[in-house]
Amino acid sequence: MSNPRNILERRSFPRVPVTTVLNAHLRHRDQHLTAEVGDISASGMRVRVEKPWSEGTIVDFEFTLMDDLRPFIGRAEVIHVKGDECRGNGGVCMGLRFLFVQPKTLTAKEMARYALHMQVMNLEQAVNVLLYAWGEIHGNLVDSREFGEPSAGFRQPVLLIHGWLGTRGVLRFLERRLKLEGFPVLSIDLGLLNVGSIEKSSELLTAKVAKLSARMGGVRISALAHSMGGLIALWGLKKLDLGKYVNRLIAVGSPFHGTYMTVPGLALFAPFYKTLWQMTPGSTFLNELHEGPLPADVEIHCVAAREDFFVTPDSATLAGAHNLLIEGGHASLITSRGAINKILALLEKRNPFTPSFD
Q: 138 — phi, psi (to 5°)?
């Protein structure tokens, strides 16, 4: 029988593999290997190493995720994986199936450092929440004639889609950076605070994007969606004709498997906002959304934040997509420099975890 503690600790990682920065030390007898970037899930890891150990080898490991100070320790078995299943460059792909994994017990000194680190992280997230709120207010003041008007640029156009209770302004930091990098930026008016049903918002989005595409000579564009915006985009790609006009979706912090943060609002706002029911885990809408495979001709990236308490990494990832796990919370996904740099790398088809993008 599985140890309940091990099952609990595995919830720290999504069910599907996510590419992330890790500092892994692997040991088999007197042999040692290290890895810095890999894929991790609740069931194991895939890392690139110079010379992989043979299948069936039992390995002791210790690793930290990103800049976390509390390591995980455990034991794993080397398994066979295909070379193209590993993200990153250099080395050979080696798969590890967790036999058990748990946080390492810290000394008093290490615990003090960890507590200080968490305070700094919380302060950074608080700043990002304030930036998000400032953008939200600014968005309500944007002249409605600006919606849908592309900015100048010389790269593939990028469509920005904000989430529930959001405005165009919450994406202004991301929009400003994209414009500086030469990307034409598009945005669509989804109504006041984007509280309409997801299906209707997707229909509106698809119709407007079709007109924009025709105006630009039929070029396919990238879609960059935050939070519920990812559900709007994915519904359009799977159920409507959005895939005719969009060939890349980058969804950041999108509740593809729902969020329990909608539950407190159901008692107050459910009669007015259908979207609250739609984003509840196990809803009819979400079940319909996941019927059938992802579109084969659309490149889909899901970016999850490890400290996102509104949309957990498990909910923000999709089987069959390229999933990334980064530092931060729900707001920092579209306000922090580190997150925006990684999004930009995806748009430019670069490795988002190279040192120049940290």
A: -60, -35
How far, rounded to the nearest angstrom, does the alpha carbon of residue 77 sit from its chain's CA centroid? Answer: 28
Does residue 114 sit in helix, strand or coil?
A: helix
Q: Is 153 helix (H, G, I), strand (E, B) or coil?
A: coil
CATH architecture assignment, domain 133-357: 3-Layer(aba) Sandwich (3.40)
Residue pLDDT, tens place only, 44-103:
999 988 888 999 999 999 998 887 778 899 999 999 887 556 665 667 889 999 999 998
Secondary structure class of 132 (helix, strand, coil):
helix
- Both tokens of 200, joined, read 């209707």
Helix (H, G, I), strand (E, B) or coil at 354: coil
Distances (CA, A) of 349 to 188, 196, 222, 245: 25, 33, 12, 19
Determine which helix (DSSP H) or strand (DSSP E) holds 178, and give its type and residue range: helix 172-180
pTM > 0.70: yes or no: yes
Q: What is the CATH number of domain 4-103?
A: 2.40.10.220
- Better pLDDT: 297 or 140: 297
User: Residues 154, 181: contact at Cβ < 8 Å?
Assistant: no
Residues near 197 by Cβ (< 8 Å), separated by ≥ 6? Answer: 274, 275, 278
Which among 7, 8, 4, 16 is positioned nearest to 313, based on CA atoms?
Answer: 16
Which tokens sit at 301? 């990236």
Q: Which residue has the higher pLDDT, 144 or 16?
A: 16
